[in-house]
Amino acid sequence: MGDTVYLWKVDGRVVAHTDLGAAAQLDGLSREPDKQVTAAEWSAAGGLARIIDGDIFLGKTDEEKQAEENTSRVAQLKKYLFETDYIAAKIAEGAATKEEYTDMIEQRAAWRAEIEEKIAG
Q1: With contact defined as beta carbons under 8 Å apart, do 9 and 51 qualify?
Q2: Of 8, 40, 47, residue with least CA distance to 24
Q3: What are phi and psi of 98, to 5 degrees?
Q4: What is d(CA 117, CA 102) in angstroms, rounded to the nearest whole number?
Q5: Is 49 exposed, middle or buried (0-12, 13-18, 19+ CB in 10 A)?
Q6: CB–CB of 77/111 below 8 Å?
Q7: Which of 9, 23, 60, 98 would be a feasible disulfide site paired with 29, CB 3.0-4.6 Å?
């Protein structure tokens, strides 16, 4: 990849090339690019470029990043709940008491509350 990535807005999407000659030959883009970024910037954006509010936007939006973080955290919390489900079974079967697992029961409630918060928002 060259040191520069050239970007054009074409029919509501972004077309990227690293070579102006190839852009002209392959996509008929003989006009000046709408934006130029370094190869490092392009790579950091994961090669993702879109048109948002009429401008070329690189990478994910803050909202998309937050949604991914929330999804990942919810999966982690559900794993914790799954790994501690045995506690409810032990209590239900009389093999343990709530008092023996008070801290973990409170932790599980906190995990559930955080899951609800992440899903809601």
Answers
A1: yes
A2: 8
A3: -60, -35
A4: 23
A5: buried
A6: yes
A7: 23
Q: Which two tokens stand for residue 40?
A: 């490092």
The strand pair at 4-10 and 35-38 is best described as: antiparallel
CA–CA distances in Å: residue 85 to residues 68, 82, 109, 118: 26, 5, 12, 21
Instruction: Give residue for tokens 């000659």.
Output: 21
pLDDT of 83 higher than 80:
yes
Q: What is residue 121's predicted lDDT score, i.e. its pLDDT?
A: 74
pLDDT of residue 19: 93
Return all residues near 60 (Cβ < 8 A) that are at least 6 apart.
46, 48, 68
Q: Is residue 19 classed exposed, middle or buried when 0-12, 13-18 and 19+ CB atoms within 10 A define those classes?
A: middle
Other Cβ atoms less than 10 A from the Cβ of 68: the count is: 11
Task: Look at the block and give the residue holding tokens 């936007």.
Answer: 57
Q: Would you call 41 helix, strand, or coil by DSSP?
A: helix
Whole-number average pLDDT of the chain: 95
